[in-house]
From TrEMBL:
<protein>
    <recommendedName>
        <fullName>RRM domain-containing protein</fullName>
    </recommendedName>
</protein>
<keyword id="KW-0694">RNA-binding</keyword>
<dbReference type="InterPro" id="IPR035979">
    <property type="entry name" value="RBD_domain_sf"/>
</dbReference>
<dbReference type="GO" id="GO:0003723">
    <property type="term" value="F:RNA binding"/>
</dbReference>
<dbReference type="InterPro" id="IPR012677">
    <property type="entry name" value="Nucleotide-bd_a/b_plait_sf"/>
</dbReference>
<dbReference type="Pfam" id="PF00076">
    <property type="entry name" value="RRM_1"/>
</dbReference>
<feature type="region of interest" description="Disordered">
    <location>
        <begin position="105"/>
        <end position="130"/>
    </location>
</feature>
<feature type="domain" description="RRM">
    <location>
        <begin position="5"/>
        <end position="83"/>
    </location>
</feature>
<dbReference type="InterPro" id="IPR000504">
    <property type="entry name" value="RRM_dom"/>
</dbReference>
Length: 130
């Protein structure tokens, strides 16, 4: 039996939330973490997530039972995640931090900076830029 505790779950509906995903997978054992990458342009998930169980046996049970099953009218593709890193409760996805958001122009001061750049281009090039 594999000692992996993390699953890749693909084929998610764009309306799937961490709460819905956790509810679907909790019958197989205690879940340590659900990481759902988001598309900042649409505000929806990217169609996949990573789910980590406390034990490898629970993870194997979920894989066996959930691969090919349906959630929110979508067929799930469930596999062991390619990397099963040690869980660190203090770690956070890079895209969740304020620094990354500001640097990439998504909300906060980054959006204001982006607007300033657009305004400067308009002033340099005349009204042709909308």
């Amino acid at each position: 039996m594999s000692q992996k505790k993390s699953l890749y779950i693909g084929g998610l509906s764009s309306t799937a939330t961490p709460t819905i995903i956790k509810a679907a997978f909790i019958p197989f054992g205690e879940i340590r973490d659900v990481d759902v990458p988001m598309d900042f342009k649409t505000g929806q998930n990217k169609g996949f997530c990573f789910l980590t169980y406390v034990t490898a046996s629970d993870c194997a049970e979920a894989l066996y039972n959930m691969d090919g099953s349906e959630l929110l009218d979508r067929t799930l593709n469930v596999k062991y995640s390619s990397e099963d890193k040690d869980y660190n409760p203090n770690s956070e996805a890079v895209w969740k931090g304020d620094k990354w958001i500001k640097e990439h122009g998504v909300g906060g001061d980054g959006a204001e900076e982006e607007e300033r750049k657009i305004q400067a281009l308009k002033e340099m090039n005349g009204p042709a830029i909308n």
